[in-house]
Amino acid sequence: MSNDVNYIKDCPKCNGSGEMDCPSCGGSGYDYMDGGQCDRCDGTGDVTCNRCHGSGVVSA
Ligand SMILES: [Zn+2]
Ligand SMILES: [Zn+2]
Question: Of the ligands numbered here, which is closest to the C-alpha atom of 9?
C-alpha cells in the first residue's frame, strides 16, 4: 500500500460551488443573440464547472 494521499482542495474556478457563470450568457440566463432564455444553462445562468465537473473540489 502506498501512502500517496489524494489531496483535494476547493476548486479555484468556482470557489467550491461546483457551478460557474455560464460562458454563453455571462450568468444572466438570457441569450441576447437569441432574445430569449440561454440554451446552454437553461436560463439559470450557471453551468457545471468544467474544472471540477461539478464536484467543487479538485485534487491538488
Ligand atoms: Zn447561459
Ligand atoms: Zn469548479
Answer: 2
pLDDT tens string 26-53: 999 999 887 899 999 999 999 999 999 9
Could you tell me which residues come within 8 angstroms of residue 42 by beta carbon, excluding any fewer than 6 positions away?
Answer: none
Q: How many CA atoms lie within 13 A of 57 on its CB side?
A: 6
Are 36 and 29 spatial neighbours (Cβ–Cβ below 8 Å)?
no
Ligand closest to Cα of 40 equals 1
Using a cut of 0.85, tell me whether the model's pTM lies above it.
Answer: no
